[in-house]
Design goal:
Helix content is 52%, strand content 12%. It has one domain (11-217): 3-Layer(aba) Sandwich (Rossmann fold). The chain contains eight helices and five strands. A five-stranded parallel beta sheet has the order 2-3-1-4-5, with helices on both faces. It is of the alpha/beta class and 227 residues long.
């Protein structure tokens, strides 16, 4: 871990991964563990996290409209939702000293819209820096698993498939390769966890990692009131 000069600012942890990797389940478990350790915790997701950003999420993922969303519009909508999310939720929580657990963030944009859709990744990185107001995660946990397994899990979740779930297998393979390439480029920040295992085994690997980061950077003490 890279040493920091502060211990009172919050900690920003993101969970990333392809479809069906189990991020939402693991965030729920991790939030419980961190609260038991005395941390103030805020859980959120992208796209989403605020009323405006959730409305954008509906357009992106759940809309029944026949009008196709262009690749550029998709990226810009995601970035607009992120700007609202960072400004209204994430940065204020970090300023209060909370641990923020976010289901997807900028790495998903690079993996899906950069590697998956083929948008220029340099432009995407610059646009994301503006949307995120320079904010980067302190720790990113990448839940990795084969595409076929992840999509099978999504198909088994009846009524929960979204527009991205219905993309081609080839698209999802590009996304997975993108996530792994990003992990290789940012080894100090991104930890890859193999998600083709039972939930409890994954949980047992994630929780000690996150608690070590919380202990070092947030300086939590037992008895601190959780939120």
């Amino acid at each position: 871990m890279k040493a920091r000069t502060w211990i009172h600012r919050g900690l920003f942890i993101t969970l990333e991964g392809p479809e069906g990797s189990g991020k939402t389940t693991q965030i729920r478990y991790l939030a419980t563990a961190l609260r038991k350790a005395g941390c103030r915790v805020v859980t959120t997701r992208e796209p989403g996290g605020t009323p405006i950003a959730e409305a954008i999420r509906t357009v992106l993922l759940l809309s029944k409209r026949k009008e196709p969303i262009s690749v550029q519009a998709e990226a810009l909508l995601i970035l607009a939702a992120r700007s609202q999310h960072v400004t209204q939720v994430i940065k204020p929580a970090l300023k209060r000293g909370a641990v923020v657990l976010c289901d997807r963030f900028s790495d998903s944009t690079m993996a899906y819209q950069g590697f998956g859709r083929g948008l220029d990744r340099e432009w995407l990185a610059q646009a994301n820096a503006v949307a995120a107001d320079g904010l980067q995660p302190d720790l990113t946990i990448l839940l990795d698993l084969p595409v076929a397994i992840g999509l099978a899990r999504r198909r088994a979740a009846r009524g929960q498939q979204n527009r991205l779930d219905r993309e081609t297998t080839r698209f999802h393979r590009r996304v997975r390769r993108g996530f792994l390439a990003l992990a290789e480029q940012a080894r100090g920040r991104i930890t890859v966890i193999h998600a083709d295992r039972c939930v409890e085994d994954i949980r047992a690997e994630i929780e000690p990692l996150a608690l070590r980061w919380a202990a070092r950077y947030v300086g939590y003490r037992r008895g601190v009131h959780a939120v």
